[in-house]
Backbone:
């Protein structure tokens, strides 16, 4: 019955603006001592917002204006916040990408983000400067719509992340050192900012020989219990803001009906567990049954895509009436084996747009090939796209464009950049160049991006990269193995009902093709959402509608640094 | 013979400007992995300049213009550098005090310091934003003069510091937490950035039962050996940039003739060891004898003024021909007991200006009483001066003054602020207020500052505070026990030959009086040089010559943040 109701709402993509309101928030960002996983001897602090970690959940209604005054109370670090999944139509300076759309907010200062949330969906927000996401600067953002008639008996937000015991500063430095010092796998996985280090709540099943987790209810690491009633439907809003880990979530004894991905409805499908990459969000429906007597079930989150060295995160689905302190009768679900990419791809390929979504334009005006490689630069390890490793400059690109300051625009490579490259071997010439160059895109066109994966510096290794685009949703036209073949693979694109997303995985030794319409002038980041990879240069920047950016009324507060800051100062001389 | 020559040069206080040159340096500031004390498992990174720690020594000649282009290559932190001991006559914006004289330099950006070094002396430089001094951002600055005819057979710079295994961010957070988490005593003391954690080079004398230090020549912790010849005179230039520790330095078997303090010559006197507080510099002459056979002697540095929990730092005075690897025949000098303040004061009171220095003005126009207390603010531990704990705002004071932006000026308290206070007990009302207010001083007057110490929050504790003044040297008129008595104690001021300094200790339960002439318009920090104390509010700010600051041609690059930055942006609208 519920599913039937669902079909009726999926065509409602834009909220009525008549009843739109304003959500105005005052936030203070600061470090605080915190033990997300109750580990002893860890660095023990996170970036909090108004004293909480994760930051407060933003609840808004489609059509609302969201105004967030962010005061930086860190001692010496700048800060920005990116609203992941919000397209920032007409407000690109509120996108919160340091060096692209704004200057970092200086300690002691306040910057006001002001944007519209145009449609219902599950989103999140996070720091986008240095590796402050890894330092804990994130939270959920849920946009509902009165037109969304889907009924559920309750909702739970599950914000998934990973946690290291070394500070983000230490991690940045490790990755930028010569030779690079890899940060390793996370110490813990967190569900809503809560995890348990080096122990297991399911210890009595001898889970990996781990000892019992000891925590009190009020501890930072005490898991959020999902309390449910029988014979009900719950919407789980799941978001992954991991720094590194690709995850899989399962609920023991329950199936999950996937209904939303990255803020867009999908044709519902049912799975036993769900893969989720950093930068992705999903809504799944969980139907409770009527266990007698009432009992508890495990919710487990484990690592995929990299050889795991991190304990599963666990919490509990607690049926009303079940014992509070008793043991669970069965062990938690086992995370599928990390390198079963076939299984991962099967999941990815199950996702189609819900009925009612218009198909993508049939043809594109431009093809952009992005070859993903791991490289070296004078002994430093870098990730490069088309042989260039991105270095974001101190002057925000949007300001440089607006005021005609010098900027390097990159040429679009042809398909030969892939054709001439052996993706199955380490690069013949592993050397890369660091570049601040960006790609210029006119407005009003259809762009295809073909992401091509390759072997890294070590033999027989290729990694998953979840690519995230700012300012847009895109259609995922297809995934493929090996090299993309122009004129062949593009003939097989799904142009009927491809899912609209803002994040998409690029699988090892394969390609992913996506399409978007340049309908949103601004400067938009497109990057691997794995924070260490981005830190090492794995991203590109799109300057969309340069002719319109130059006319934009960008709040100068966003541009008070670098060359734009200098320019304002000199203009002001009298 | 040497001493005789010495007298002749002490009257030469200002260098000829005819031959003045330019010292231009290009610096890059970044974090790097480093093991100053070879400890395992420490955070292991320091702030380096051009890849070195401590930063490069600046060598200049009196009269030179020093131009330093500082590029911030930290990932998310701002940075400034203060040139400790340089008075910045006419260039207050080059003083490098964040929030007072400039905005922090943003990551990726460059700020140019440009100032004149007007006289010979031993100085240093260090970070002055957050607790970046504790993160290792410091180095020596030596100004010589061709008119300084003192002959020595060689010079050694000894830059003393202390080192923690937790990052400066962690320390800042600890001190700012509720309740405050004290950072504890340093893990190691460093000589020229080199120390040995939890071990002793003199282990074979069973020094505190410590094990042998193991290091290789190329290790960061390998001590700098002072290689000397017999029957020679060496000038040791000693500076302390400790975050917390008060130090004592001794050279086994050698006396030290003190000739310079904080860049001013003093009447030479000879000691067996020298106390040095954070912010102070000294030059001492060390005369070698002729040991037969040639041998090695210990140079030891230990903690005073706080109950020590840190191993002595050791290095070696190595006579030419002594064995490279052999043991020393005798144990290192023992640091005087930490709380023998009588001994400390005896040393302080031995320091007089060298002949040739004019005496201070006979009378002062203004008396400023500064009562030092430890307090609480809503459960946070603070240090307060006259019941106000300093919070430096994001807009640099010098910019607020220059452009007439709102600013709070504090009233000068009368002597009753001390008279009415029981300095021997914890504060009756321990609560303080945080304030950004500053003191206004007209130019062309003589100011006396009376620093009054008191009991902290715990009973029967009062601490040493080395107070440092920017932009000026001052005369130390006197030290006294208990409360300062106006009309009594000021009658006993030394107005004949008080030493000119920029840093002076305030002893437990006592007072210190100093005098300076307001001959340098600018905004000048006067603060306890103990970094945790300053972080907790222990400082005041002097706005000197406001009527002249408003006319100053301050480089706008120094003011591109906060309200001044905003103002420039709005002025620039067209």
Residues:
């Amino acid at each position: 019955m519920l599913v039937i109701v669902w079909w009726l709402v999926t065509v409602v993509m834009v909220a009525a603006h008549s009843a739109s309101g304003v959500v105005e928030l005052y936030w203070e960002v600061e470090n605080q001592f915190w033990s997300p996983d109750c580990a002893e001897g860890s660095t023990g602090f996170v970036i909090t917002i108004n004293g909480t970690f994760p930051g407060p959940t933003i609840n808004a209604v489609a059509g609302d204006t969201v105004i967030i005054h962010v005061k930086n109370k860190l001692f010496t670090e700048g800060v920005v916040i990116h609203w992941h999944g919000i397209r920032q139509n007409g407000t690109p300076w509120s996108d919160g990408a340091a060096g692209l759309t704004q200057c970092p907010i200086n300690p002691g200062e306040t910057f006001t983000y002001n944007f519209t949330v145009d449609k219902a969906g599950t989103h999140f927000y996070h720091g986008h400067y240095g590796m402050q996401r890894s330092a804990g600067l994130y939270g959920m953002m849920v946009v509902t719509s009165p037109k969304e008639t889907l009924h559920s008996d309750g909702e739970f937000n599950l914000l998934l992340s990973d946690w290291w015991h070394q500070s983000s500063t230490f991690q940045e430095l490790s990755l930028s050192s010569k030779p690079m010092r890899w940060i390793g796998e996370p110490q813990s996985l967190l569900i809503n900012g809560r995890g348990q280090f080096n122990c297991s709540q399911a210890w009595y099943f001898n889970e990996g020989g781990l000892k019992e987790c000891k925590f009190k209810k009020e501890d930072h690491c005490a898991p959020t219990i999902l309390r449910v009633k029988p014979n009900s439907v719950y919407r789980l809003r799941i978001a992954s803001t991991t720094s590194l880990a690709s995850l899989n979530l399962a609920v023991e004894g329950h199936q999950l009906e996937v209904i939303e991905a990255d803020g867009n409805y999908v044709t519902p499908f049912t799975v036993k567990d769900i893969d989720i990459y950093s930068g992705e969000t999903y809504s799944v429906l969980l139907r409770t049954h009527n266990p007698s007597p009432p009992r508890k079930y495990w919710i487990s989150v484990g690592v995929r895509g990299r050889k795991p060295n991190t304990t599963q995160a666990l919490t509990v689905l607690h049926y009303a009436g079940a014992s509070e302190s008793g043991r669970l009768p069965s062990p938690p679900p086992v995370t599928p084996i990390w390198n079963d990419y076939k299984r991962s791809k099967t999941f990815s390929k199950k996702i189609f747009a819900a009925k009612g979504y218009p198909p993508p334009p049939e043809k594109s005006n431009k093809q952009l090939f992005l070859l993903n490689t791991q490289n070296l630069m004078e002994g430093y390890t870098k990730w490069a796209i088309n042989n260039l490793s991105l270095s974001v400059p101190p002057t925000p690109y949007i300001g440089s464009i607006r005021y005609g300051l010098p900027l390097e625009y990159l040429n679009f490579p042809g398909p030969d950049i892939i054709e001439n490259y052996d993706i199955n071997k380490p690069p013949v010439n592993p050397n890369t160049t660091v570049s601040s160059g960006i790609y210029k895109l006119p407005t009003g066109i259809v762009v295809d991006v073909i992401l091509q994966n390759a072997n890294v510096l070590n033999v027989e290794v290729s990694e998953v990269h979840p690519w995230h685009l700012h300012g847009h949703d895109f259609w995922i036209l297809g995934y493929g193995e090996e090299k993309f073949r122009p004129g062949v693979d593009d003939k097989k694109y799904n142009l009927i009902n491809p899912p609209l997303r803002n994040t998409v995985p690029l699988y090892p030794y394969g390609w992913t093709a996506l399409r978007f319409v340049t309908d949103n002038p601004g400067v938009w980041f497109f990057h691997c959402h794995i924070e260490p990879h981005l830190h090492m240069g794995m991203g590109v920047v799109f300057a969309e509608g340069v002719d319109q950016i130059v006319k934009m009324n960008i709040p100068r507060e966003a541009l008070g640094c670098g060359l734009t800051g200098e320019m304002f100062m000199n203009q002001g001389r009298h």
